[in-house]
Amino acid sequence: MSGNRNKGLGRGLRVIAGFSVVVALVACSSFDSRRPGALEQYTAKEIFERGELELERGDGEEAAFYFGEIERLYPYSEYAKRALIMQAFAYHKERDYPNSRSSAQRYIDFYPATEDAAYAQYLLALSYYDQIDEIGRDQGLTFQALQSLRTVIEQYPDTEYARSSVLKFDLAFDHLAAKEMEVGRYYLKRNHFTAAANRFRVVVEDFQTTTHTPEALHRLVECYLSLGLIQEAQTAAAILGYNFQSTEWYEASYALLTLQGLEPRSIGDNWLTAIYRQMIRGEWL
């Protein structure tokens, strides 16, 4: 995941025009930046180049300060617009996601029709996405990441950010399914079969395109057999066999059923048989 993140941010650096010779001169000048009024003697261009220099040095926090000062001192300049998107990037570089998100959102609000609006929306999405590496984190971040990534995909479909967002969207979607599976396994280990089955059902119904669907179907077979819901168990195994016959999960489900003299087949009238009928008509998976 971190590789995709770095690649996306690397592409984002194209908003930087490049470091000119003037940057080197600015580096040698004396910027007493924290003294009140000190930066007022410098032009927007000079302050912007100082911010770029701090980025090159690896100090995103200091860079964000300079870019913010441009917005304060020269609010109607072309540099203020460029500085705002660069401030969002600088904060993100420092993993200051709330401030990165705030700067990116301001850019979108003030300059929605510019070329860099797509990158601002992408940075906003990343401010959520880059915090969902661990399954145990608040899933609200994952939902917000999905919503923001969808916005990039739908509003800027022909950009490189949309292509990157599609990949990240799939990973975030898979992440939500992984969380449901984790909770379902927790209940299953403690023999809370109904609670476990409810979690695995969510994966089958709402996250059927993820990598977790085969296991979810097998766990449903386990849960339903334990609950004495034979028809549901057979139907879950039938769906599993139709779509994932070569997997270890189907082999395990088949073994469980044959031990009880049963076979995978769609039977009865339940939510799984409805899915099975849809699947046969090519409307599922």
UniProtKB/TrEMBL annotation:
Organism: Cognatiyoonia sediminum
Main location, first listed in the record: membrane
Example GO biological process: Gram-negative-bacterium-type cell outer membrane assembly
Domain of life: Bacteria
Identification of the protein by name: Outer membrane protein assembly factor BamD
Entry's family note: Belongs to the BamD family.
Role played: Part of the outer membrane protein assembly complex, which is involved in assembly and insertion of beta-barrel proteins into the outer membrane.
GO CC annotation terms, alphabetical: cell outer membrane
Gene3D superfamilies: Tetratricopeptide repeat domain
Membrane topology classification: Lipid-anchor
Gene this chain is encoded by: bamD
InterPro entries: BamD, BamD-like, TPR-like_helical_dom_sf
UniProt keyword annotations, A-Z: Cell outer membrane, Lipoprotein, Membrane, Palmitate, Signal
A Pfam short name: YfiO
Assembly description: Part of the Bam complex.
Chain ranges of the Outer membrane lipoprotein BamD-like domain: 42-237
UniProt-annotated location(s): Cell outer membrane
